[in-house]
Design goal:
Elements (H helix, E strand, L loop, with lengths): L2 H30 L6 H15 L9 H24 L19 H12 L9 H4 L2 H32 L8 H26 L2
Amino acid sequence: MTVNGWLTIFLFVGVLTALAIPLGSYMAAVYTGERTFMDRVLGRPERLLYRVLRVDVTKGQDWKAYAKSLIIFSLAGWLLLYFILRTQTLWDFTGLNPMHFHSAPWNVTFNTTSSFITNTNWQYYGGETTMSYFSQMAGLTVQNFLSAAVGIAVAVALIRGIASRSGKSLGNFWQDLIRTVLYVLLPLSIVLALVLLFQG
């Protein structure tokens, strides 16, 4: 391995180690309901989403209710993504399929949908030659966020269960999901996008 390769590895480990404490403290505040510096910006959208989804954040869920919410959400996401990918040609009128791509075969669509819902994102196709802009924007990109949020919410629920030594109250899945998207993934994606933008 070259000197630049080793330098990159050590720099990455150093940055990751330096960010562990502030990012960990911030995420702990997000999931315990403490105030964060993002509350002024994201507090209203968060409360609006709770009203729209009819989520009562004061009610905790045991492991069965948490798992039920997770499964229902993931199943609805799977069905919607599969529908978007299988009806790709129907979206030509939006201008978001300018290449007039046809839908992939059902087995490729099934595999793609399943992999994006489970956050494995295994792609058995060429994105630029198979998926329309609409499929990538409204389907795959949305699931990149939501499947990661589901995984983080499950990890948080697991930590709560271990800390309390019971599965009686793991928090609220819907609250964990919304807070993960708004307070963790959205700011991280903006910061990383700016870093990549400045790197050209």
